[in-house]
Amino acid sequence: MTGQPTGFHAVRNGDLPMFQLKNVTCRFGHKRAVDGVSLEIPKGQMVGVIGRSGAGKSTLLRMLNRLAPVSAGEIRYGDRNIGTLAGSGLRDWQRDCAMIFQQFNLVPRLDVLTNVLLGRLNGRSALMNVLGLFSREERLEAISSLERLGIDRSALQPAGTLSGGQQQRVAIARALMQRPQVLLADEPIASLDPLNARIVMDALKDINRRDGITVIVNLHTLDTARQYCQRIIGMADGRVVFDGAAEHLDSLAVRTIYGTDEALDEGMTSTAITLSKPVAGPGPLPPASPVPEPIFLAGL
Amino acid sequence: MPVNLPDPVREPPGRPHDVERHWNEMTRRKRLYSVLGLVLLVACVIASLRFANETNAGKFFERLPYFFDFFRDLVPRDGWEIARALFDLPSPYDNGSFEYNYPEGRHYVWSSFYIPEYMFKMIETLNIALFSTVIAALAALCLSFLAARNMMPNPWIRNGVRRFLEILRAFPEVVVAGFFLAILSLGPLPAIAAVSLHTVGALGKLFYEVIENADMKADEGLRATGARWIERVRFGVLPQILPNLMSYVLLRLEINVRASTIIGAVGGGGIGELLRLSISQNHEAKTLAIVFLLLVTIIGVDQLSASLRRRLADERAFHPA
């Protein structure tokens, strides 16, 4: 994890906008899915959120994107008060705060390219959107974001026919089309095989490092969180019980997060592929050519 | 103690025994209820049959032989008369009465090419059915998204639209047609109005149930990109449910072909009107020609719609990996 400040709690100059959560609570009926969470997340950080199923990780992320309601407390991003946004202000925030999901949430019957273009719906006329009319520039941008994720070859297939790993990369490409400031990832690799999990996590890391986009990712494998995230937030019963750098996540912290009495064997949750050569960090993505292939464009 | 029972020590203590006992009790109770229900049903059927026969004063079997008089009256003077009536060819029995004036109904398209009267009227009936189905399907599509729980969180709008759809489908087409005939006078227009209104109510309900059963993952993904409501409808829900909706529309088209025939009989234009006239005037060849034409058309429409729906079902079977 190079090139990032280690003191991540400190707010650097010019780092605004950033997340500030104060006593944030989300209630569903009587159950508090998220219970009084206070956090600060500066711009450009890669944060992993870990915890048992039902610990509130998912709800926390969904509140940031306002897919879940903010019952109490305050979420601020820069000068925006996320909890009170409504109408076009809310939709603009959702564009700026992209989200990808465990089940990819693409439109399976539409082709990959259209799915990626749907990331651009916000800010265009509703009529043009409903008619499915996108400009050549937008198509080129969609293709180049597909290229960046290495799936431009599948651009014209229905998204539902792709493998899970490919679909998750399409979802990331769609998120990039939103030109977001934040990328939330809710268990992005939980349905993927180890190789695809690695590709997806590498892509998220690359987006974080090259584009400076804040990435907040829910994970259920400890070693993935350690390997990719500079900061780890542990949740249990809707509360934050650990918040610190990956190297501070010792066995005591793990026991607090997972509520086990005995130490957890991290290898048990691991699905990662151990390469023969030591992995210093996430490997770089295959270099994307800056100009889309002309042969491909001729058909559009 | 019987020795051939399984050794209880090998099973987890107590549990399987309890589960089996509960299962036996539940099954016994279910069987008891089924038998009681069946006995009650048979008793009700017998009682109501008795009641019906007493109220009819036992005329059913007395009048039954006259039932077939109708079919005896329907036999034409010769079999070719049916074909002549169907294709508006001159009849050898022509005596200037309305019974054999087949060629007078010809609809000339150009010079000597004509469409026989009944086929022309059948096309009119089909047109009424097709036009009202298309119009009603579009209206039902708009309303159904306002009535679906997953797309319309506001209960006032949702329940308002649902009640409105219920009112639309509460009255049979013929009743609504009678109402519109009084306002719009005879012709296909009241038939179209009546069939469309009823179809909006019927399709609207089927549509919103399809929408409520839709997989909302794609919609969630779009919501997270900041898409408007109409864009979520267009991209998140519509691609997924369109084959189902088309299948319902085709099914409704079959029903509407029959409905517009019946409405024709009460003055709504089309083939139904001619059928009623020829039956009431005892024009046996004309009646049989129309009945034959109706049968062929309805079987044809049903087959076409069935094959289209099969194709849609294949498409619906498309599941994401």
Q: CATH homologous superfamily of the largest domain in chain B, by name? A: MetI-like
SSE order of chain B? HHHHEEHHHHHHHH
What value does the average pLDDT of chain B take? 87
CATH architecture grouping of the largest domain in chain B: Orthogonal Bundle
Oligomer: heterodimer
Quote the CATH topology of the domain at 19-102 and 181-298 in chain A: Rossmann fold
How many helices of chain B? The count is: 12
By CATH reckoning, the class of the largest domain in chain B would read: Mainly Alpha
Look at the helices and sheets of chain B and give the structural class: mainly alpha
Poorly predicted ranges of chain A? 1-15, 276-300
Main sheet characteristics of chain B? 2 strands, antiparallel
**Which fold name fills CATH's third level, the topology of the largest domain in chain B?**
MetI-like fold
Q: What count of structural domains of chain B? A: 2
What best-fitting shape of chain A do the alpha-carbon axes yield?
globular
Shape estimate of chain B: extended
Global Rg of chain B: 29 Å
Biggest interface, residues from each chain = A-B, 39 and 22 residues
The number of helices of chain A is 11
Helix content of chain B: over 70%
What does this molecule look like?
The complex is a heterodimer of chains A (300) and B (321). Chain A contains eleven helices and ten strands. With 300 residues, chain A is α/β, with parallel strands linked by helices. Chain A has a domain of 202 residues: Rossmann fold (3-Layer(aba) Sandwich). Chain B has two domains: 42 residues; 200 residues, Orthogonal Bundle (MetI-like fold), CATH 1.10.3720. Chain B is mostly helical and 321 residues long. Chain B has twelve helices and two strands, in the order H-H-H-H-E-E-H-H-H-H-H-H-H-H. In chain B, a hairpin with a 2-residue loop joins strand 1 and strand 2. At the A-B interface, helix 2, helix 4 and helix 6 of A face helix 9 and helix 10 of B.
